[in-house]
# Entry
Amino acid sequence: MDNRPIGVFDSGMGGLTALRQLVRLVPNENIVYFGDTGRVPYGARSSDTIVKYARQDMSFLMQFDPKAILIACGTVSTTALPILMREYDLPVYGVVEPAVAAALKATRNKRIGIIGTKATVRSGSYAEMIRYLNREIEVFSKACPLFVPLVEDGRVHPGDPVLSCLIDEYLSEMVRAEVDTVILGCTHYPLLTDAIGAYLGDGVRLIDTGLESSLALREHLFKSELLSDREGSGTVSYYVSDSAADFKALASVFLGSEIVQDVRRVDIDKY
Ligand code: DGL
# Structure
């Protein structure tokens, strides 16, 4: 048993969709969340910059003596995870492996789509892991860079005209490719589940990376006997690198409830 906190980080707000799942799955754990809201988006940046930012995010969280880290960001998981795993002596979890495992279980016709930021698609991490595990699978990847600003603007409803236009622009090739499973490879995208689901139809299974990675982390903590034995609820502490008030105002869209705790602002350049 280990009552130290779990560290969770993302480039900004998107990781809150994973945090929401994690709190549901392990409610008695203490969690420290860092959202790099001052430097979001990561998804349009070079690999070097993403790795530099991810190291600073890790270094910030390490001061809380976490027992494990969940990288609740598709972009960092696909671009920097192997580097961070080598550099830090604690379990560091990303979203790729759990999402791939779920997609391989879900697909029936062996045609899997992957959507994410430009950096995520450029990394090729999802496609590589899928092919490594099953060479019969055909993978179709598409960068959808404009989904993130749209989600942050609250335009997530299936009838929204701008969203509908973008979904058609980005996902019509997934329809043509006849995929039966799509990995939502960015932690913002679970908010688009209804809209994307309505466009692709009931026959297409959508994989939520935040949910799958939270399930995998819980499993890991259980097997390693690292789950907390705390009675009652754990705490969630929030840190961001830009306005705490702005983060709080938008957070409920991602979390499904208001943040009642204080959100603290940190100078991430110091780390
Ligand atoms: N949360 C990021 C991800 O999952 C998307 C936002 C960004 O580009 O930083 O890839």
In short: The mean pLDDT is 96. Residues 68 and 91 are 5 Å apart (CA to CA).
